[in-house]
Amino acid sequence: MMNRLVASRRATHLSLPRATTATTTTTTTLSKPTTRHTSSTKTPPKPSAAPPRRAVTPFNDDGRIPWSALSVPEKTGRAAQQTFNLGLVAVGLALTGGVAYVLWTELVSVDSKNAWFNRGVDRVRGDAGCRRLLGARDWSGGDIKAFGEETGGKWRRARPIASSSYKDANGDEHLVIKFHVQGPLAAGEVHMHLVKPADKNDFEYKYLFLEVKGHNRVYLENADAKGVGKDGKKGFRMFGFKWS
Length: 244
Fold this sequence. Notes:
Component of the TIM23 complex, at least composed of TIM23, TIM17, TIM50 and TIM21. One of its GO terms (biological process) is protein import into mitochondrial matrix. This is Mitochondrial import inner membrane translocase subunit Tim21. It holds the Pfam family TIM21. There is one protein chain. Helices cover 41% and strands 20% of the residues. It is of the alpha+beta class. It has two domains: 67-106; 111-243, Nuclear Transport Factor 2, Chain: A (Roll). Strands 1, 2, 3, 4, 5 and 6 form a six-stranded antiparallel sheet that branches. A two-stranded antiparallel sheet has the order 7-8. Strand 3 and strand 4 form a beta hairpin. It starts with a helix and ends with a strand. Mean pLDDT is 77; it is low at 17-31 and 228-232.
């Protein structure tokens, strides 16, 4: 009898942990659905409101905001800014065209004063009488220097060529040029007068001569002398024709 009681107590004692373990397992299993239900009920965060844009003015307008989104004062400011920008572009184009025109007429064109200056220098260097008067040792006149008027100040080396141009009553264009030449023995001035008749496209020489102090002029071109007739009378020009 005693043995049965002892065996029964041992069986009861050994079965208690199993029951506890089962109870714990059951409790853990039941808690999982509760956790899932709690996470599914969370409310999503609301999106933050966009910050208000700054007002568009002619000074800060970069064109990113479309025209339809602008207010009436902002549209007025953008229109004023674009008008100002177009004005700057037009002024820039006008200045560029003016500079191009000056470069063409003064340097590139065959009728520019620089082009005629170079032709005049070549004529002086190529004339035997001019080379002899200036004392050139080189038969090509390479040792004869040509330059413009002397200037003072910082740009003393930049010696501009003295020139003037005008149109007379008959519509003829005149170009008058003067420059200096320096040879090994003497220095002088070269005077050039060109005329473009109204009915022609090219300039013609009226005169081209070298003048050295103490010597007679050396004429390389002289239209007035060519206009003297056989009877010694000088011809004149009228209605586009030369009359003797």
